[in-house]
Design a protein that fits this description.
The chain is α/β, with parallel strands linked by helices and 528 residues long. The chain has three domains: 101 residues, Urease, subunit C, domain 1; 260 residues, Metal-dependent hydrolases (TIM Barrel, Alpha-Beta Barrel), CATH 3.20.20; 102 residues, no CATH class. The chain is 32% helix and 20% strand. The strands form five sheets. Strands 1, 2, 3, 4, 5, 20, 21, 22 and 23 form a nine-stranded mixed beta sheet that branches. It has a six-stranded parallel beta sheet with strand order 10-11-12-13-14-18. The mean pLDDT is 97.
């Protein structure tokens, strides 16, 4: 006898094949039978006639490291079809790091992963144990951030690592992977990963050599030099002979739109033909969201956020930053690439700054009687650098080119601000993929879109039991009518649940049923 049968659905199995009408049989959290199961007994029958059945969506690039422990966690994810998320991206993970540099690390991470957690784990094992103890509604995986591993060994100092620091980095990577991390993430646009040169990066990642553990990388430059950044990471992947995931692929800057991405995609296709295990991912919005300090040149990030806060009182440092913002082309100089008018203050903490929340930088600067540079530096100083931005950085044509490419997975890159304005991708990213790019624009077929949200991301991180409907796979499943999917949020009103996902099963258990939360919480820490 089975626990449940999903009866009569139009099944997309996560591959690129056509849909098939069949029943799906579930027992002990696994898919155990497919086909005509009318003569098979089950404890519950879920009628999916006239509905699509597919694997639960996976978001392998999210920043819910600490949001996982919020009481409400899981609902906004379920309502857009997510059954598995992976945190710890961009080199910034809530573990592993010990007490030596904890204050500096948490201060730097807080605009991305938040500060409102009841846990503060030293190790990846402690973090994953805390996730399981939390009993989340969905599955939660974790990458180990190279940035925090380096910061744990050497703080936020620039320059090459000493032999002892390098040994500690290797030990940190090896221990995190043994403890259950799904891979290693890099944030080469963030401190302290930005202080590695290519040779130092290969040395630091030596424990991954000739293995199957993937590197997921926020590249060094996603603007004018995005092609060089791709080349750098292909060099790293060749040297280490390991899988590579290029995170949130894009070309920032109006002069780079429609020009860089077609060339980059051709380089990546050629690299795959040559045998490199390289994949990439993208989010379906022209705006991103990250720390406001990401507009600054990387050299001023040495020492961490509190050191930078003190430096912002120094006229010499401010003059240096002003000059670099005006002229710099050797880093993601966002204000120069897209203009201050495309950067919005999206979250901050100090009550005296609430008047600029939600404003574009030129508007906020004018309100304060300052130019854009002085306003930005003063705001960062006042907020101890804990400020986030929404920045309009890429173009729709590039997004569509990337989404059409063969090896892309859809991701959100969503953060969970506890104050201010979130990016709408937090609530609607995965529903948007079908509503906009399948139903409205006809850019993708439904099987293609589902594949890019299920089997493709699962394969990218070696999650062999997820993202597919086949015998033995985890019974993380969705039931919905594609025509009913709707992203309800917008940049003006982002915090609105997506609609149209009717029923979600995690580990074979209905967590959302006919649009209503059941109270079940069968999620676990995801493992390879």
């Amino acid at each position: 006898m089975l626990d449940r049968i999903i009866r009569g659905g139009t099944v997309l199995d996560g591959g690129l094949g056509a849909a098939r009408q069949m029943d799906v049989g579930i027992r002990n959290g696994k898919i155990v039978a497919l086909g005509d199961l009318h003569e098979t007994e089950a404890g519950e029958i879920l009628d999916a006639s006239t509905r699509t059945v597919c694997p639960g969506f996976l978001d392998i690039h999210r920043h819910a490291d600490l949001a996982v422990f919020r009481p409400e966690f899981g609902e906004l994810e379920l309502r857009q079809g997510l059954t598995t998320i992976v945190n710890g991206n961009c080199g910034m993970s809530a573990a592993p790091f010990g007490p030596a540099h904890r204050t500096e690390i948490l201060s730097y991470l807080s605009p991305v992963i938040g500060t409102d957690a009841p846990v503060c784990p030293d190790s990846m094992a402690d973090y994953l144990d805390a996730v399981n103890a939390r009993q989340p509604r969905i599955n939660v995986g974790m990458l180990a951030g190279s940035g925090v591993i380096r910061a744990d060994a050497a703080g936020f100092a620039a320059g090459p690592l000493s032999a002892e620091q390098l040994r500690n980095v290797h030990k940190g990577i090896e221990t995190a992977l043994a403890d259950g991390a799904l891979g290693i993430s890099l944030g080469l646009g963030y401190a302290p990963d930005c202080f590695y040169d290519t040779k130092g990066l290969i040395e630091a990642l030596a424990p991954l050599r000739n293995g199957s553990v993937p590197i997921a990388v926020h590249m060094r430059d996603e603007g004018t030099n995005v092609d060089r950044s791709v080349s750098e990471m292909l060099t790293v992947a060749r040297a280490l002979n390991c899988p590579l995931e290029l995170s949130h692929l894009k070309a920032i800057g109006t002069e780079n739109w429609r020009r860089k991405i077609p060339a980059v995609l051709e380089v990546l296709a050629r690299s795959r033909r040559e045998g490199l295990r390289v994949r990439w991912d993208a989010y379906p919005y022209t705006a991103g969201s990250t720390q406001l300090l990401h507009v600054l040149p990387p050299e001023v990030l040495e020492g961490g956020t509190e050191v930078l806060t003190r430096r912002l009182f120094d006229p010499t440092v401010r003059d240096h930053i002003r000059k670099r913002l005006a002229e710099g082309e050797d880093y993601n100089n966002i204000s120069k690439l897209v203009g201050w008018e495309n950067i919005i203050v999206s979250s901050l903490r100090q009550p005296e700054n609430r008047d600029v929340l939600g404003l574009r930088i030129p508007e906020a600067a004018a309100l304060r009687g300052q130019d854009e540079v002085d306003f930005t530096l003063d705001l960062l100083r006042s907020e101890h650098c804990i400020v986030t931005m929404i920045d309009y950085i890429t173009c729709e044509e590039d997004i569509q080119a990337i989404l059409r490419s063969d090896m892309v997975s859809l991701i959100s890159d969503a953060t969970y601000p506890s104050t201010g304005q979130p990016h709408p991708r937090l609530y609607g990213n995965f529903v948007r993929m079908i509503e906009r790019y399948v139903n409205q624009l006809k850019l993708l077929t439904l099987p293609e879109a589902v594949h890019k949200m299920t089997r493709s991301p699962a394969d990218a991180l070696g999650l062999k039991r997820k993202g597919r409907i086949e015998i033995g796979a985890d019974a993380d499943l969705l039931i919905f009518d594609p025509a009913d999917l709707h992203e309800a949020g917008s940049f003006e009103h982002p915090a609105r649940f997506a609609t149209g996902i009717e029923t979600v099963l995690v580990a074979g258990v209905p967590v959302l049923k006919n649009g209503i939360l059941t109270g079940a919480a069968p999620g676990r820490a995801a493992s390879r």
